Amino acid sequence: MNNKSFYIKEDDKPVIINVTDITEYIDLYKDILPENYITKQWWYFNRLNVPERLRGKGFSKELITKLCEWANVNNIAIFNEITPYGVDLSLNKLITLYAKFGFYNIKGNRTLMIRLPVIK
């Protein structure tokens, strides 16, 4: 399995998002995938780690933007399993955040989101 990390270093501490190539396992998800998916690569992540002291400074936006740009260029779809934690990172807030980048819930599952690549 391939892995890739996107990060920003702030105060000598990285803010990280890790993604894992799940292409070889995509058939396990065929019942919940959109009918029109055509991409050959599927990657997965479930946690964007931003330390509490760094929240609200745009790091999440910057990292998700980098991830989405990379996915678009490489024709990669992304699964995101949302893991809410704390009051400031509720399920609804996380869904709203990821929706701004083109992620959407699939098959009525509120914690699993998908983003198909935008080919220009």
Structure description:
The protein has 2 helices and 7 strands. With 120 residues, it is of the alpha+beta class. The radius of gyration is 14 Å and the shape is globular. The model has no long low-confidence stretch (mean pLDDT 80).
> What is the structural class?
alpha+beta
Parts with pLDDT < 50 across at least 5 consecutive residues: none
Tally the helices.
2
Q: What's the gyration radius in Å? A: 14 Å
Give the overall pLDDT as a whole number: 80
The CATH topology label is Aminopeptidase
Let me know the number of strands: 7
Major sheet description: 7 strands, mixed
Cα distance, first to last residue? 28 Å
CATH architecture: 3-Layer(aba) Sandwich
**Overall 3D form:** globular
Order of helices and strands: EEEEHEHEE
CATH superfamily: Gcn5-related N-acetyltransferase (GNAT)
Residue share in helices? 10-25%
**Residue share in β-strands:** 25-35%
CATH class identity: Alpha Beta
- In the residues, how many domains can be counted? 1
Keywords:
single chain, 120 residues, alpha+beta, Aminopeptidase, 2 helices
Fold topology:
Elements (H helix, E strand, L loop, with lengths): L2 E8 L2 E9 L19 E5 L2 E2 L9 H15 L2 E6 L9 H9 L4 E3 L2 E7 L5
Short recap of the structure:
By secondary structure, the chain is an alpha+beta fold.
